[in-house]
Amino acid sequence: MRPPRDVWVIGDVQGCAAPLHALLDHPELSAPDTELWFAGDLVNRGPDSLGALRLIKGLGERARAILGNHDLHLLAVAAGVRKQGKSDTLDDILNAPDAAELLDWIRRLPLLIRDRGHVMVHAGILPVWTLEQAEALAGEIQSALRGPDWRNAMNDLYGEEPLIWDDALRGPARMRVIVNALTRMRVCHADDGSMELHYKGELADAPAGLVPWFELPARRDRSIPVIFGHWSALGLNIGVDTICLDTGCVWGRQLTALRLRDHHIVQQDCTGCR
Question: Which residue of 16, 74, 123, 223 has the smallest Cβ count within 10 Å?
Answer without folding.
Answer: 223
